[in-house]
Amino acid sequence: MKPMTIHQIASFAEGVIYKDVTDExxxxxxxxxxxxxxxxxxxxxxxxxxxxxxxxxxxxxKQGATACFFEPDVIxxxxxxxxxxxxxxxxxxxxLENMAMNYxxxxxxxxxxxxxxxxxxxxxxxxASVLSSHYQVLKNPGNYNNHIGLPLSIMALNENHQIAVLExxxxxPGEISLLSKIARPDYAIITNIGMAHVEKLGNRMNIANAKKxxxxxxxxxxxxxxxxxxxxxxxxxxxxxSDFQVEEVGLNTLSTCYAREIKDLGQKGFExxxxxxxxxxxxxxxxxxxxVINALFAIRTGLMFxxxxxxxxxxxxxxxxxxxxxxxxxxxGADVVNDAYNANPDSMKAAVHFISKYPAKRKIAxxxxxxxxxxxxxxxxxEIGREIINQKIDYLITVGNMSDWMAEESKKLGMGHDxxxxxxxxxxxxxxxxxxxxxxxxxxxxxxxxxxLEKTIDVIGEGVQ
Length: 465
What we know:
six-stranded mixed β-sheet
């Protein structure tokens, strides 16, 4: 963060300083965790359903924090400890957003925003890696992609950064619009429109409209990059303001940037060329055809920043996916594909398709419940059951109540009852898998985050390589 005076912070946050301070007290760090406070920190005491950060202002002061926000209807200014400057605001969350929005305006650098139902984190990490071959890049860490994480990420910008790559997530309408207006991107990427969050949004059209909100803060004459292969490509393009330049990536040869001469290397990834880079052959080291699409977003954007294809490839080589996304480890002589970070129908079908092509003696799918599907939950889980049959998976281990629909559908379509094992949690699944797994098998672990299916590895995997 670029050091700022408390007066500047108060102005950006539309707050009022409780007591006079000198401009020698500079703020160089923003946090919502009192344990991370130090000299130069400003502590933001956010409120949740079961907690209130105001209770930790004293702890922040003990850790050395220089300042904090506070809401006068929660605590009085007199309750702010000595040694820490209080800034009164109406709402700490809104103040954080205002502060980030005004702070972002201090930087005249390109901002690239990314959203989508699947692949947004991988695309963010790939693109940041590609651009880092020539630029100093800020990206939001991990899942810092919501109304809290994105403002905090923007507040980490400093004078050395030349580009910001920001992922934007959502659970309901209006959320991405807010994030886009805070970040004011010059480039916006929509990876795809899937079924994630359909429980709250009702249908894919509403999801498409929510994702399209990423253009609400897009600068005039900005660039929107979308997936030509996606079902909602036409809708997104036709319903985007004419002020924007629209670029497309995909396998469709009508795309601005498309992949050609694709060679599947199995668990070693893919090699391919593009229509924009002649005979240069790109390689992504991550399995799954969806990663070719993710890479195309990074390639097209990198080329727009005038990177040479060799520099783009250097970035793809340096890319390391965030944990629990198609991670392959060896347990008891079998390859275990840990894709358990999260799941929705599209990403689960892609993962099942991947192991169906895997060079293994037996294909075992350990699949758990997919959440936030609302009235579509039963049909979505049954669709995965049909995919198990279509992709000729040898064993299905289900985890949770909703995944019983997968088991029912697979059994109805002819999968032997001895090939389907239903379990209630990852502990039971691990016990089954420990007895079943053999050398030469491939095992897929995939479920929504709450299922914590990755813990299966801890139970069965002493000596993971």
